[in-house]
TrEMBL record:
Lineage: Bacteria, Bacillati, Actinomycetota, Actinomycetes, Mycobacteriales
NCBIfam families assigned: HTH_metalloreg
Keyword list, A-Z: DNA-binding, Transcription, Transcription regulation
Protein name: Metalloregulator ArsR/SmtB family transcription factor
Source domain of life: Bacteria
All residue ranges annotated as the HTH arsR-type domain in the record: 1-83
Organism: Rhodococcus jostii
Length: 88
């Protein structure tokens, strides 16, 4: 995904950066497309992939929510532990 931050890339361009086969890179791109993180457009015999800003924003919101919830739990646990030590 980091390679796509500079703009559209073909599978061949992306595959040149990895020891994996072009087919394996295509499979990864298919998963990213199905997840809504990458979009593709066909131009002739080439397919160009790019990041999907909307999908990335949704992923970011999910991570933000996860960490906010985790931090809230951590604060609640710490507060509860401090209160229980204060009662001793």
């Amino acid at each position: 995904m980091q390679l796509l931050t500079s703009g559209e890339q073909t599978v061949n361009n992306l595959a040149a950066h990895f020891p994996a086969s072009r087919s394996a890179i295509s499979q990864h791109l298919r998963v990213l497309t199905e997840a809504g993180l990458v979009t593709a457009r066909k131009d002739g015999r080439f397919r160009y992939y790019r990041l999907d800003p909307q999908g990335l924003a949704q992923l970011r919101a999910l991570f933000d929510s996860f960490w906010i919830d985790e931090l809230d739990r951590l604060v609640a646990d710490a507060t509860e532990e401090a209160a229980s030590k204060g009662d001793s």
